Give the backbone structure.
Amino acid sequence: MTGEKRSTADNRVVYRLVNVGVILTAVAATLVSWQGLVFVGRWAELPERMLWLMPLMIDLPIVVFTLGGLARRSRGETYWLFSLAGYGLTLVSATANFLHVVSIRGLSSLEGVAGSFLAALAPILVLLTTEALGALLAKPSTVTADSEAAAATVDALTAALERARTTIADSRQEVAELEKYRDNFGRGPA
């Protein structure tokens, strides 16, 4: 060992910085996707005062289903329906965001192609950052492993104590028999 300190990613400063990065990315991606879905809300003939419902209806459930799936997975329950819903809505949102830019810029220019794909990336980032945030918030369950290890240790100690008790009882029996033998042998014929 050279004596130099090694850094670890599993410390509070790194953890907090990663959380801040995840949250900022999630907010930025949500705002970009929100803009595209508000635009698409006009295609659905929503009144102007209700356009905000389109992104709320699509992007918010991505977060809800992703976190719900993470919670169910951490409890050991089935989560495929939550995952399916989250991925499905991500696909719907990405497609809507892609088409929003295509409808304005087309795909005949580099700007149109790049803008379309970057807009489609926004809901995917919402999904991924929600997964990352959920994974960072979920702590591994060491209680079960620690409890099982403690129970095994207690069982082993109990078994060792039982063997020791049996050995002591046997030793006492032998001592008692030896004392009888000594007493009988020591008296001999009188």
In short: Residues 146-190 form one domain. The mean pLDDT is 84. Residues 37 and 55 are 5 Å apart (CA to CA).
